[in-house]
Specification:
24% helix; binds flavin-adenine dinucleotide; alpha/beta; 24% strand; 423 residues
Length: 423
């Protein structure tokens, strides 16, 4: 990370912030806060962060590195929702079909990944399964192939490197790929993959070491912003901070937000459920990501192979639907034959944080020190480095390291017409 220039806002360590004072309710009962991460009752903190997924925890890490006192709150466990469910593709090539600010933001975030991972590994000592594996997009009929080629031309022009691969060369690149009837394929050389669980382990360790107070099983019930402070309510307890980041993924807009007591609306977050299927294959048996239509296969370094996915708007229904699993298995087996004879070792669901229009929302609530960082939908893992740097730099008053004016301090991001590309 470049050395930050002189900050406009130099956070002062809070008095008592190193103390372990038990967080108590008024009647004396302790809250659900982790005993090693307790808060000083009534103290004000530099930044409160609501939601400890990849987005919230990466912001917490960067802010704590700059000396801020940070409280990171989660309704469940650290990284326990979308962030630990995701497939881990870092693949603008499969997502952005038109030039747009969102596409540029994703391309920039992908470019930040190698340094982001290096820094996390170096500082935490946690090894992260991150690989510049490339991705192959397959077409089994001429219509699809023509559409893919046209898409490739557009993508090359706005900065996504892609070229055509001859079907006969594919078996050497991806043994096991079904080449029968294959019409053509695009190769996205810069697409990469990461194991989200490794990122979360590393961030957890760095947040702990950086003195971030992590409150798990602590659902924030409401947020009230005044001009110079923000107060959250958790189980009859109030915690006050100078700034707040709302990064509660699919749940973000469900948390009542007010400005000096007056209810304030923010873009509606929408859970988009996805099913995933995991298989254990020999390590190294599949290098690139394989994609065909809405289905994909991506392998971790240890051979664990993730196949996805479905997109369902059905609220927060956590049940695994065997019909969806069956569909995914049939689809991925049709283009990656090793899966046709394998039984899955794991099936799971997660909630992509969608919003009512295309996202993400990375913005400041006007007239407050509340920052919104949610709605990353299918690309939150990819967009973590860029989002974390953008939001933390903005809070600290550092100049932006991200090109373009993605974060607008006076509104909720871009209009629908400006947000294009995410399929
Ligand atoms: C099936 C599937 C596949 C995916 N594949 C990819 C992929 O290949 N590549 C990619 O880039 N992205 C992928 N994603 C998307 C990615 O996982 C998400 O965009 C990203 O994890 C969002 O991170 P987040 O921190 O915003 O949200 P989350 O990880 O959902 O974190 C939000 C946190 O807020 C907490 N919270 C909720 N309510 C409250 C409250 N009231 N108080 C306090 N805390 C609260 C939750 O408990 C949760 O831990 C996938 C997602 C799914 C579901």
């Amino acid at each position: 990370m470049p050395v930050p220039p002189k900050a406009k806002f130099r956070p002062q360590p809070m008095k008592g912030s190193k103390c372990a004072i038990k967080l108590m309710e008024k009647n004396g009962k302790s809250l659900t806060a982790d005993a090693s991460n307790v808060l000083e009752l009534g103290a004000s903190h530099d930044v409160l962060i609501v939601g400890a997924g990849l987005i919230g925890s990466a912001i917490a890490w960067l802010l704590s590195k700059s000396g801020c006192s940070v409280v990171l709150m989660d309704a469940g466990t650290f990284g326990g929702e979308a962030s630990s469910s995701g497939a881990g593709m870092l693949a603008p090539g499969g997502e952005y079909r038109e030039p747009s600010p969102a596409a540029q933001f994703a391309i920039e975030s992908l470019a930040m990944y190698p340094a982001f991972v290096r820094q996390l590994e170096k500082e935490s000592g946690v090894s992260i399964d991150y690989r510049n594996c490339g991705a192959i997009e397959l077409a089994y009929d001429s219509e699809h192939w023509h559409a893919l080629q046209a898409r490739g031309v557009v993508q090359r022009n706005f900065g996504i490197p892609v070229h055509s691969l001859c079907p006969s060369s594919l078996n050497a690149v991806a043994p096991g790929l079904n080449s029968e009837g294959l019409f053509g394929a695009l190769y996205y050389a810069k697409d990469a993959c990461v194991a989200p669980a490794d990122l979360l382990r590393s961030l957890r360790s760095l947040c702990d070491r950086g003195g971030v107070k992590i409150l798990e099983n602590s659902p924030v019930e409401s947020i009230d912003a005044e001009h110079d402070r923000v107060t959250v309510r958790i189980a009859k307890q109030q915690i006050t901070g100078r700034n707040l980041v709302l990064s509660a993924g699919s749940w973000s807009s469900l948390i009542p937000l007010s400005r000096s007591g007056a209810p304030t609306s923010i873009p509606t977050s929408v859970p988009v459920k996805g099913h995933l299927v995991g298989y254990q294959l020999p390590p190294g048996s599949l290098r690139p990501i394989l994609r065909h239509g809405h289905h994909y296969v991506v392998q971790r370094r240890n051979g664990f192979t993730v196949a996805g996915s479905s997109e369902e708007t059905c609220g927060f229904n956590r049940s695994v639907n065997l019909e969806r699993i069956h569909e995914i298995r049939a689809e991925v087996s049709s283009f990656y034959t090793p899966l046709s004879t394998k039984e899955p070792t794991r099936e799971w669901v997660g909630f992509r944080p969608g919003i009512e229009h295309q996202g993400p929302v990375i913005s400041r609530v006007p007239g407050t020190k509340v920052w919104l960082a949610y709605g990353h939908y299918r690309n939150g893992i990819l967009l973590t480095p860029a989002t974390a740097h953008l939001v933390s730099d903005e809070i600290l008053g550092y100049p932006k390291q991200i090109a373009g004016d993605w974060l607008r301090p006076d509104g909720y991001g871009r209009s629908r017409e400006q947000r294009v590309g995410m399929s």
